[in-house]
Amino acid sequence: MTMTAKIFSSTRVQACKLGGLCALMMGHLCCSPNDPLKPAYPETITLTVKNPAAFARKDAGIVLEIAKLKAQAPSFNDKAFVVLHGAQELASQANDLNGEGSAEQIVCVADFAANESKTLSVRYAQSGERMRKYPKRTQAELSHKIGGRFVNRKYEGGTFQNVRSLRVPSEHTDHSFYIRYEGPGWESDKVGYRFYLDWRNAIDIFGKKTPSMVLQNVGLDGFDSYHEMSDWGMDILKVGDALGLGTLALWYECNAHRIAQPDSVTCAILSNGPVQSQIQTHYFGWKVGTGAYNVVSNLSITAGSRLTKHAVAIDGDPQNLCTGIVKLDSTVMLKSPQANTDWAYLATYGKQSLANDKLGMAVLYRKSDLIEVSEDEHSHVLVLKPEHGQLTYYFLAAWEKEPGGVQTVEEFETYLNQTVAELHAPLVME
């Protein structure tokens, strides 16, 4: 999950004028002559972030808006910075979400004790490029073949190449052997996902047996060998005609209609970083019933989390949007207990993976967005109401074979209730 923190004070020079407050907030980072980062990153912005909840949280995502940083320190440089808590350097990244060469946000993760406040320091140089490197804990990629050609909607020849963006060719369909593992993929150190970038437009799950990044090695043979167990894991979900997990659709005539008939589609990797990765897809002229809609889908994942955040923008004022989970045998359906929270979940758990082992799947939604919980032939369905064309929900998968994986339905429910509690009590400025 990503939470926004706000600026507490301004640059290093201004902070030092605060005397004792500087020593309290910055310690040796601001004033110590032995600070090893001082020559490379001499300026400092400080901010305070609090966990308001009576429980600890691990790898809590923090989003810093660069416009707000620059409002306090106009010289801030998003190409030369580092984020610290005391002497501890936090893995971070700058996200250029518009592809225009300058970042709009910084994302980092930190652990919090119950009710803990942390004072963070954003250290920077006013000019130059000095980007730090961190272990990669998330990934997003889109790879398609080049150097070949379509023959009867199958791509012959060519080799795979990762690209930042793609306008989906009109010749492309399912099993065209054009896009590696049939669509874009994204992963954290917990789990991986993909969606089919064709008429199916459904989300699938890659179960991982390792925290390492694996998608770069998946589907290189051009086929679907990832359906067989390997050292890293495998594709663990049978989607079929259903919503898979968290697929966007529209509820019409008692059925969930996926984005099957758009006029055109473009897909881009907005960020592929150590802390967060994000995929943006534009669907133009999505036809459902008598309506046609333009949709922007933003899928993002953060280090240490199973959650994918799905932020959707749609024009044309549809009566609803929907999402859900594929119906599979040998599962129990779980719903949130009645609790004083803004968020709730719909989930399934049981031996529902393609490896015939235990898998939990859930969609988390704002209660205020819910129209109804329903179902069709293929899926458990949440019918939701977008507000002014905007809708945000989350989905997650928990596989028993992942490192430290959830092993029982009781553990899964505990994990879901904790996740809802975290969504209900986001990090705040102290």
Structure description:
The structure is a single chain. By secondary structure, this protein is mainly beta. The chain has two domains: 2-124, Immunoglobulin-like (Sandwich), CATH 2.60.40.1180; 138-429, Beta-galactosidase, Chain A, domain 5, CATH 2.70.98. Helix content is 9%, strand content 44%. It has a nine-stranded antiparallel β-sheet, covered by helices on one side. A five-stranded antiparallel β-sheet has the order 5-4-8-2-32. A hairpin with a 2-residue loop joins β11 and β12. The radius of gyration is 22 Å and the shape is globular. The model is unreliable at 1-32 (pLDDT under 50).
Q: How does the overall form come out from the CA principal axes?
A: globular
Number of structurally distinct domains: 2
Helix content: under 10%
Number of alpha- plus pi-helical segments: 5
Question: Strand-residue fraction?
Answer: 35-45%
Low-pLDDT windows of residues: 1-32
- What is the radius of gyration? 22 Å
